[in-house]
Write a structure and sequence with these properties.
By secondary structure, the chain is mainly β. The chain has a domain at 1-297. Helix content is 4%, strand content 35%. It contains three helices and 32 strands. It has helices spanning 19-24, 283-294, 433-436; strands at residues 4-6, 65-70, 76-81, 84-89, 94-100, 130-135, 141-146, 157-162, 167-173, 180-183, 187-191, 195-200, 206-212, 222-223, 264-267, 303-307, 313-318, 329-332, 338-343, 349-354, 359-364, 370-375, 383-388, 394-399, 403-408, 428-429, 451-452, 455-458, 472-478, 481-486, 491-501, 507-518. The chain is globular and about 60 Å long. This is HSV2. Residues 1-55, 229-276 are annotated as: Disordered. It is found in: Endomembrane system; Vacuole membrane.
Length: 522
């Protein structure tokens, strides 16, 4: 039987912060620079809250990064490591939040950007490692799970961390490790090894529905982030280019949730405002907003995609419409197990790769129709990261071969000749294709029908030889720029798609590294 507890000190939770509070709130300091920094260096804000950044490296060279996750619009990313977590603006790269937890203590260490002491709802024997972190847009709420050699929280416990107050706001405990977490302003999605559980974002959280999956050891799942202006939330994810943290957002309100049957739920009450970036957003106000929206029949669709019960299947669920017992769309995407998948921001397309990593397939989430099939290569590879561009015109794919591929999604009839004005950014096909097209399609091997990326780069040319395999996470910072953050190398890189002159006068494209920075130096 699940249990939950609530601290009733909520009487001040809706208080808006004044100017002094804003200085002390690290997540409110993240602002967009009007001029992008094209070099490998970065300037740190001179605000008193950030003075410690000049005195110590964000990530010591001997410290392991445990996870890297971009937020919903790729405008920032969070890093979990053995001592806590960090939050960066993506481009220009800039460290904005640093949280080191004291091992065996209840408060973040003195190396944090803001050293004010706050009681935490953790055991005095807790560690410091954060093995997973998910941001909720640009608010001060982050989903964290312990990890590493000395976890801050148990690996089977999800904590919604309120960074403004340096404490847990909500927590959920399970009988299996938490592998991944997806957040929206109204939903918490928890990914376990063989099931996915959806909760409402409330205090206490209410379990809404559970889905069984095939063994999902990588915690594969994704969720669209389209928001509606009628809900009063900021539709940051609908913009083509992500913004850095800004203090110009309207108040984002969220709301309460019921108990679930698979988890022990706790809720820590608030005695001060829970400010989102540039606004006084409390958990209570979020919950109130969610309660109002629960009766709104025009709620925007939130599409959740994840592996099905059978090998190679993908399940597609509209969380705005889903009720227990409702049907879900199922795609038979691959013959092998799903290794990676991603959904575009509007929730209309899902891209997937199997554990073989040779083919990338894109399906319609509404009709389940196969829209595109791309070939990464012929040898097996682990697809470590995959993202749609903000305008849905491209798909970026990164593998353990260290090759970044960019596929064009604008070609409806790739086999036919295209006019000069549409020849731009065309995916590639086998050189023999034009010589064997006269043969019946059934006689042509599938390999010769394949579509390859229109440009790619082996990122190893920019790196020193390494003794262990590295994993990169990518995000789009514009329609022609991709950022990769490497876990073991601890570096941030920006790659730009550039036009180059082809020998026959045709337009050709290449990917060039245009900026980089080490994360373990300031």
């Amino acid at each position: 039987m699940p249990s939950y507890k609530t601290n009733d000190n909520n009487h001040n939770s809706n208080k808006h912060i004044d100017s002094s509070d804003k200085i002390n709130s690290p997540l409110q300091q993240l602002q967009t620079n009007s001029t992008k920094n094209k070099s490998s260096s970065t300037q740190v804000s001179s605000s008193p809250s950030f003075t410690n950044l000049r005195r110590s490296s964000p990530i010591p060279k001997d410290l392991s990064i445990l996870c890297i996750n971009f937020n919903q619009d790729h405008g920032c990313f969070a890093v979990g490591h053995e001592l806590g977590f960090l939050v960066y603006n993506t481009d220009p790269i800039e460290l904005r939040v640093k949280r080191n937890f004291s091992i065996g203590g209840n408060t973040p260490s003195r190396y944090n950007l803001n050293t004010s002491s706050t009681a935490a709802t953790t055991s005095p024997l807790s560690g410091s490692g954060i093995g997973h972190i998910t941001m909720l847009h640009r608010t001060n709420y982050l989903a964290v799970v312990g990890g590493g050699t000395n976890p801050r929280f148990p690996i089977n416990k999800l904590v919604i961390w309120d960074d403004l107050k340096r404490k847990n706001s909500l927590s959920l405990e399970f009988d299996k490790p938490v592998l991944n977490v997806l957040l929206s302003r109204i939903k918490i999605v928890v990914i376990l090894i063989d099931e996915i559980i959806v909760y409402s974002f409330a205090s206490p959280p209410k379990k809404l529905i559970t889905f069984e999956t095939h063994r999902n050891e990588f915690g594969v799942a994704d969720m669209s982030v389209t928001t509606s202006s009628t809900t009063g939330t900021t539709a940051a994810a609908t913009e083509r280019k992500p913004r850095a943290y800004s203090d110009t957002h309207t108040n984002d309100r969220l709301g309460p949730v019921p108990r679930g049957s698979h988890a022990s739920i706790s809720s820590a009450g608030s005695t001060a405002s829970n400010a989102s970036v540039g606004s006084g957003t409390s958990l209570n106000s979020i919950l109130n907003h969610n309660n109002k929206n629960s009766n709104n029949v025009h709620q925007p669709s939130t599409i959740l995609v994840f592996p099905g019960k059978a090998i190679g299947q993908i399940q597609i669920v509209d969380l705005a419409q889903q009720q227990p017992g409702s049907s879900v769309n199922i795609i038979k995407a691959h013959k092998s197990a799903i290794r990676n998948l991603c959904i575009n921001k509007t929730g209309t397309m899902v891209a997937s790769a199997s554990v073989l990593g040779t083919l990338i397939r894109i399906h319609s989430t509404s009709t389940t129709q196969l829209l595109y099939e791309f070939r990464r290569g012929i040898d097996r590879a682990d697809i470590t990261s995959m993202k749609f561009s903000h305008d849905d015109s491209k798909l970026a794919v990164l593998s353990d071969k260290y090759t970044l591929h960019i596929f064009n999604l604008g070609e409806e009839e790739p086999e036919e000749e295209t006019s000069p004005e549409h020849h731009h950014q065309e995916n590639k096909h086998h050189a023999l294709t034009k010589y064997i097209n006269f043969l019946p399609s059934t006689l042509i091997p599938q390999y010769f029908k394949s579509t390859w990326s229109y440009c790619s780069v082996n990122t190893n040319q920019y790196h020193q030889q390494e003794s262990e395999l590295d994993t990169g996470s990518l995000g789009w910072v514009s329609d022609d720029e991709v950022v990769i953050v490497w876990q073991k190398k601890k570096i941030w890189e920006k790659y730009t798609i550039m036009e180059k002159s082809g020998g026959d006068g045709d337009e050709e494209y290449e990917i060039v590294r245009t900026s980089w920075k080490s994360l373990d130096s300031e």
